[in-house]
Structures are given as C-alpha cells and as structure tokens.
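quick one before i forget lol
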Amino acid sequence: MVSVLIVNDQSLQRHGLRMLLAAEPGLTVTGEAASGAEAVRMSAALNPCVVLMAGPSGADDIEAIRRIARPTPHLSPTPGPGRAAGSGSPPRVLVLTSAGEEGYAHAALRAGAGGFLLTDAAPDELTAALRVVAAGDAVITPALTRSLIDAVRRQHTVRPLERDFGLDTLTGRERDVLVAVASGWSNAEIAERLSIAPTTVKSHVSHILTKIGARARVQAVAFAYESGLVRPAA
C-alpha cells in the first residue's frame, strides 16, 4: 500500500485529490497539510511513502521539500502506514508544477524532490507517478526535462563546484554518457550515437547518479553544467 500525504493550501483541491486517490486500489491518503511547514511536521509524524506537493510554488515549499527529503536526525521519520517496520528512510516527494516554472522545479530537484508532473496531468498519470516515486524511481515528464535543460543552458555563468563531488570518480565512458544526457539525448539516442546497447546506457546512467549523489536524471544535467563538464551554448 502506497501512503500519501497531500499538501495544498486550498481545502477544495485537497478534498478532490483525496477522493481521487482514495478510489485507486493500492493508494491511501494518510493526511493533508495546508502549508509547507505543516507538511514537514506531518511527514515526520506519519512518514508516508510519498508527499504530494500540489500547492503554489514558493521558497517555503523548497525548504519544506528539503526538510522532508533530508530530515535532521531529531526529525527522522518513524514507520508509518505502508512503510516497512524499522524503515527510517524519509518519504519521497512528488511535485505538481505549472508549465513555465522551470526555476522552481530546478530548485526543488536540488532540495531532494523525487519527481514532477505538470498540473494538467491526467488522473492516471498522477496515480502511476505516485507508485513510481514510492518505489524509489524518478518521474519527470519529457517536456519538463527539456525545459529544465534549456533553463540550465540559458544561465549566463557556470560556477565550477568547489570540489569534484563525484566527477573524478566517473569513467571516461560515464563522462561521455553524462555529456550526452546533458545534451538532452534519450537512452536510445545515446546508445545509437555511442554504439553501445540501450541496457548499457541505462546501467551507465544508474552508476552516474549513484556516484554524483543525484536522484534524478535532470539533477545529473545540472551537475554536468555546474561542474564545468559541459558549458552552456552561446
């Protein structure tokens, strides 16, 4: 059972999401929060599988995502509904965001969000995304991925990281794959252009994410630019 904490500042929207999710087999709503601060408190108390951030974007939400995804020791979650006994892992965060809010999505990824959907997503897309994120995988729509890549490329300056933070641990082939990912290529395109199998590309991407401490593909894109491995186009 995937337990979900709904976060939205509008009571009617929270009610609608609760009705939608409650009707879906395998999903249960463990609580509702009207603000980021309330979501942090309830997340620590209930430890749901997924926190669904479905409200307006803002700096408070970014801080809430950070505190939910990376809780301080004294706020470490205890097992909640749908969580294995003894599980101390923090909830995953799925964010609903509007088109044109790439800056917010980028900041949320940095804070630890595990997935994104646009607010016009279909109900079945939302329920599927909740299951995927709960399983530990990332969910980011292709359109948003492209927008985020473009947003990173438009940055006027790239500040090299003060430390490699994993860049020096990448093999030559992994760097090639990371450059290709940062260029917006799909796994199939990377496989074709680098003359390797798609399964090998998937394995490389998984290893890259682990080595640089990233949860999602778009975080790897940001890392590629910020580390100086890839430079924004003029």
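fyi Strands lie at 2-7, 27-33, 50-53, 92-97, 115-118, 139-140.
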